[in-house]
Design goal:
The chain has helices at about 15-40, 40-50, 70-80, 90-105, 145-155, 175-180, 185-195, 200-210, 215-220, and strands at about 60-65, 85-90, 110-115, 130-135, 155-165, 225-230, 235-244. By secondary structure, it is α/β, with parallel strands linked by helices. Strands 3-2-1-4-5-7-6 form a seven-stranded mixed β-sheet, sandwiched between helices. The two termini are about 25 Å apart.
Length: about 240
């Protein structure tokens, strides 16, 4: 078990996946505003870089795991112009907001949303040309199983493109990020979202989540043939790319 799998958003004995779903349902109305403000809108650029990794392969069927409110799915639909894109998440509250955004963008014929347990996806083997995920896999109750499921539903030769928040490894960004993530992020998140635990939980999972070379081994263990990573913005975010 990886360290972030032991961390739950709320106290109690409930299953982590259900607690995470409840947390995201609670913060869904303010999630987009907080996400962009707390990252100074840099998160939009991270998403674009992750999608550009897929451009040479022209995927036509996409799955966006832990899609949340659909920002990554909408951007992928615009940049990659696939035939179909499914946004999967355990939080109906987040996806309800995503559905409204997709309809406003006129993409409801391309993007659909589906409630899914990422550890036990309902899709057939080798269904998708590509899978994407932004800031979601560190919430998996079982990272290894979640990645095995992603690999299973990918076609042979298909690709996985991920962006995930990580901790910088070099001075002084490592120290500055720690101060920011332990003060500004949880306090501001609590004030805006009205959830006392959510943004403290998110900070804890960022620090505990495997990153860099360790993730390369985790991808290979899950069944991916090739994997690479690139640190963005001094290591605050890491972009991963893997092939089945």
């Amino acid at each position: 078990m990886y360290e972030q799998e032991k961390i739950k958003p709320y106290d109690g004995n409930g299953e982590k996946s259900k607690l995470v779903a409840g947390m995201f349902d609670n913060i869904a109305p303010t999630y987009d505003t907080l996400n962009h403000r707390l990252s100074w809108n840099i998160d939009k650029g991270w998403r674009k870089k992750a999608i550009r990794q897929l451009l040479p392969y022209r995927p036509q069927t996409l799955l966006d795991i832990a899609t949340g409110t659909g920002d990554f799915a909408i951007l992928a639909a615009r940049m990659l112009t696939p035939k179909s894109l499914i946004g999967a998440d355990i939080s109906e509250g987040m996806m309800d907001i995503g559905r409204q955004k997709v309809k406003r963008e006129g993409l409801d014929k391309v993007i659909t949303f589906k409630k899914e347990d990422c550890l036990n996806l309902s899709f057939e083997d080798e269904t998708f040309d590509a899978v994407t995920a932004a800031f979601g896999i560190r919430n998996f109750q079982d990272l290894d199983q979640g990645l095995r499921e992603i690999c299973r539903v990918l076609k042979n030769g298909g690709h996985l493109s991920i962006v995930e928040l990580t901790t910088p490894v070099s001075f002084p960004m490592k120290q500055l990020f720690r101060i920011y993530s332990h003060t500004v992020l949880p306090i501001y998140g609590k004030l805006i979202s009205k959830d006392n635990s959510a943004y403290s939980y998110l900070t804890s999972t960022i620090e505990a989540f495997p990153q860099g070379e360790q993730m390369m081994e985790i991808f290979r263990k899950a069944g991916f043939r090739e994997a690479s990573f690139r640190r963005l913005t001094f290591g605050i975010c890491t972009m991963y790319f893997a092939e089945k």
